[in-house]
Amino acid sequence: MTGVSEKALFQSNPLGSTTTLDEVRENFEFLDDWEERYGYVIDLGKQIPKMPDQYRIEDNYVHGCQSQVWFIHYFDPESNKLYLLVDSDAMIVRGLAAVVLTALSGKSPQDVAAFDMDKLFQDLDLLRHLSPTRGNGLRSMVQKIQTTAAGL
Amino acid sequence: MTPSLTKESLIKESVTKESTAAYSLEAADGSKVEPLDIDRIRRDFPILHQQVNGKPLVYLDNAATSQKPAVVIESMNRYYREYNSNVHRGAHSLSDKATAAFEAARLHIAQYLNASGREEIIWVRGTTEAINLVAQSYGRSQLQTGDEIILSQLEHHSNIVPWQLLAEQVGAVIKVIPINEKAELDMAAYRQLLTDRTKIVAVNHVSNATGTINPIIEISRLAHATGAVVVVDGAQALPHLIVDVKALDCDFYACSGHKAFGPTGIGALYGKRELLEKMPPYQGGGEMIERVSFSGTTFNQLPFKFEAGTPAIAEAIGFAEAVRYLEQFDRKALQAHEDRLLARAMELADAVPGLSVIGQAQQKASVFSFLVDGLHPSDMGTLLDQQGIAVRTGHHCTQPLMDYLGIPGTSRASFAFYNTLEEVEKFFAALQKIIRLFA
Ligand SMILES: Cc1ncc(COP(=O)(O)O)c(C=O)c1O
């Protein structure tokens, strides 16, 4: 996977900065039926800045997904912060990835590596999407992010 | 008899009337068929009566695996409760009973497929194992460098990869029958592909991805004219069609119990006796031998020669029970009902903007594979599931077909005879909701 030097691209991502995890948690509490919940997930996905085509390459590809998923990161050693970007051609995967970014992007690699994603997805009643079944790309993506963080 | 007019009987009556009206049908050949009472049939399938994500389950993933009627579940239960024992070996009554049931099951499948005898039916784990058996036993012993194997663009990975392995081993060449825009085999191209080097033609009877029903009789006739043997992947045909291996005149026919209302872990390979006779064993072990010594081993006769180890006894019994269950119906009526479900889906699909149906063969089983512009199949699957509707999404283990069509995958609703018109309508209502959510 590629460490990307385009800081601006990562700074244009509101997830994890202006869109906070507390806000996302709170919003989920007010949504009751599946249409509202997934409508919100899809909207969150739309907040992810578009990944430039040059990064949609094999090196950044997350394998094991039904949909196509890419992941890139940028590490700022000065502030000790890890910035993340994800792209997917499936809107729900994209939206769930947005939840992951909200939780992890802009945190220290230590915090990223230690984050309990299962717990968050359980709280949001989305745990099924992280289930370790065959072809679960979201789980591979979270693992890839956390391994990257642990290696920094 | 005058029926008492309780509320319940009124409701029941109106339901039955509606069902009768809906399901008094013509078979594909135009003959009248007995009306089906789908509500009654559904009562035979315990799993159908449940809620998923707070909604009544609408199970439209039948091509992946079908549901099982209670009689099948009970037949397996009874085996384990009353006469579980190893087959062909025990010197005791339970073993005799288990062996009798196991062999009766084989005979039943043989008769159902119209094989010439029970020794033409080999128990396997499923279609996949059946095809691997033919490739490794028949293929490896009969094919030589430069020989040709013909497959089709419509094949499931299970009917591709075993042949690729064989081709590597013996130096054979694989050729592929192309399809037209409706996902039907290009028969003219097939004729062109057949040469005197063609040794095997392996095609599916019904495509799991598009529902296409392939003209096996014609395929066999042409293959036999050049001396090739025909291997049919019947995984998707068994639940929909009456399969008669003599009428098809194929040399091998592979199928899975679980696709045809039976259990997982069991399938049948039909092979013409004279071919099976000359084939070497596939795996070695118990059951398949006549006598073992370190100076040499003689093999058991058909069909045991191909059945190493303790077989799936309860599953074989369950599989035969599934076939017995099917036999109570006028199969033409079941088919006509499934055709009706598919026709309704096609009708409703017309009203959905941006929806394209993948596979529009003239001869088609009740498989509805589709794409909606701008909507990824994986999103479609997730959001249908939220509404209690089970479909499959992805490439359906037919990646070469998806590549050929230039799509990453589809969403697929596959209907069984226990599905109702109401369920098809619910499925489309759910689909419209999803499209609105993305709008
Ligand atoms: C056309 C076709 N062939 C082969 C198979 C493989 O069957 P099984 O997994 O039961 O061996 C399937 C099942 O998905 C199928 O649909």
Question: Helices, strands, pairings?
Answer:
The complex is a heterodimer of chains A (152) and B (439).
Chain A: H1 7-11, H2 21-30, H3 34-46, E1 69-76, E2 81-88, H4 91-104, H5 109-114, H6 117-123, H7 137-150
Antiparallel strand pairs in A: 1-2
Chain B: H1 7-23, H2 38-43, E1 51-52, E2 55-56, E3 58-59, H3 70-83, H4 93-112, E4 121-124, H5 127-142, E5 148-152, H6 161-170, E6 173-177, H7 187-193, E7 198-204, H8 216-225, E8 229-233, H9 245-248, E9 252-256, E10 267-271, H10 273-278, E11 289-293, E12 296-299, H11 313-327, H12 331-350, E13 355-357, E14 367-372, H13 377-385, E15 389-390, E16 392-394, H14 399-405, E17 410-414, H15 421-438
Parallel strand pairs in B: 3-15, 5-6, 5-7, 7-8, 8-9
Antiparallel strand pairs in B: 1-2, 4-10, 9-10, 11-12, 13-14, 14-17, 16-17
Helix pairs in contact in B: 3-11, 4-11, 5-6, 12-15
Pyridoxal-5'-phosphate (PLP) binds next to α5 of chain B.
User: How far apart lie the N and C ends of chain A?
Assistant: 13 Å
Distance from N terminus to C terminus of chain B (CA atoms, Å) equals 56 Å
* H/E series of chain A: HHHEEHHHH
Q: Main interface pair?
A: A-B, 15 and 17 residues
* Rg on CA atoms of chain A, Å: 14 Å
Oligomer: heterodimer
Overall number of strands of chain B: 17
Q: Which regions of chain B contain 5 or more consecutive residues with pLDDT less than 50?
A: 1-22
Count of structural domains of chain B? 2
In DSSP terms (H or I, runs of 4 or more residues), the helix count of chain A works out at: 7
Strand order of the largest sheet of chain B: 4-10-9-8-7-5-6
List each distinct ligand once: pyridoxal-5'-phosphate
The CATH architecture classification of chain A is Alpha-Beta Complex
CATH architecture of the largest domain in chain B: 3-Layer(aba) Sandwich
